[in-house]
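Regression report. Comparing outputs from two consecutive submissions.

Submission 1:
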Amino acid sequence: MSNLFANIAPLQASLDYHMDRHNVLSSNIAHVDTPGYKPSDLARVESAEFANALGVAMDRTNAMHMNAGAGSIDQNGMVFKDLSAGAGNDGNYVSLDREAAKLAANHIRFDVVSSVVSAELRSLAFAARDAK
């Protein structure tokens, strides 16, 4: 028997990525008036490529430690400084218009993936009720 939720697992990872990116972008907007603040962004990195991007593999050194990446923002991507907006007079690199646009685009992508997940779950529920 195949895994019924195999189609949903990649979508869950996508939802997690967009949620993490939302948190990073929201933090940038919150620091729009902080002198010298440099905004961050989250680049999507597939898990197989993540170890190669860093050149190391994360490993637990003690059985009591948490799993590598568990609950961290790096689990779904790589945080980087986005200085492309340029610095203002106070050394702050946050452009409110740019960050708001990135946040809105990320929100739309999250909504699309959320709709796909809902449709997948509805079809599984339909099949579980013997198509009634």
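Submission 2:
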Amino acid sequence: MDLKKFIRDVPDFPKKGIIFKDITPLLLNAEAFKTAVREMISPYRGEKINKILAIEARGFIFGAAMAYELGCGLIIARKKGKLPWEKIKKTYSLEYGEEILEVHRDAIESGDRILIVDDLIATGGTARAMAELVEEMGGEVAGFSFLVELTFLDGRKVLEGYRVETIIKY
């Protein structure tokens, strides 16, 4: 199935000059969504994965389905102030400033193998920050799984040394 045909380009969103890759048409199509989840899992099937760390917000969609399919736990990485219990935070740089993501302090145990999931990799900064957080908490990064990769932003370079799997490349 050609999943690219389910990704809609939205020009000038969220700001002028950006072409946003909208995944909602893919989510609306049951077969496309199932195919996407299966393909995102495929490179890691049969490996020891204790938990999936899903990055807010669209990463939750794929991460939850993947955790269910793999029979493993799900960690949600949320923006500052959104989690209710004791948290560990990671500050990282974006093109336009800084952002903070948090996970619960008890989400990762020493030795856990964590698969980090998001809908899209652009510059790789968010994903790198989550890898650092996993390692600071005593976990091991099993790899990354993304639905979409914007290759022209070279996010893989930021994740050098880690396994990075993507389904759709632009």
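Expected: both submissions complete independently.
Actual: both completed, but the second showed a warning that disappeared on reload.
Relevant detail on submission 2: The mean pLDDT is 97.
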